[in-house]
Amino acid sequence: MSEKLHFPHYPMYMATVTDAIAKGDLAQMKTLQSQAEEVLAAYGDVPTALQLLKVEIAKAEAAGG
User: Fold this and answer.
1) Spatial contact of 5 and 38, defined as CB atoms under 8 Å apart
2) How far, in Å, CA of 38 to CA of 5, rounded?
């Protein structure tokens, strides 16, 4: 993890994003966009990594591990 990474002011959950959209708060939406881009730049494609992890767990469990 980069020392330059700043933790977001808002938790980066779907509810946070959808709430900001529902409120129509442009400033909050722009802040969230910036923070989400920062998280993705730091951590990459987490959903794809999670899917790969699930496949490897299933393989290990099938092999008796």
Assistant:
1) yes
2) 7
Q: What pLDDT digit, counting tens, does each position of 11-51 carry?
A: 667 888 889 899 998 998 999 888 888 888 888 888 888 89
- The Cβ of residue 20 has, within 10 Å, a number of other Cβ atoms equal to 19
Q: pTM for this one?
A: 0.59
The letter for the amino acid at 21 is I
pLDDT at site 1: 46
Question: CB of 39 within 8 A of CB of 48?
Answer: no
Percent of residues in the chain assigned helix, strand, coil, to nearest 5: 70, 0, 30
Separation of alpha carbons 37 and 35, rounded Å = 5
Compute the distance between CA of residue 7 and CA of residue 16 in angstroms, rounded to an integer.
Answer: 15
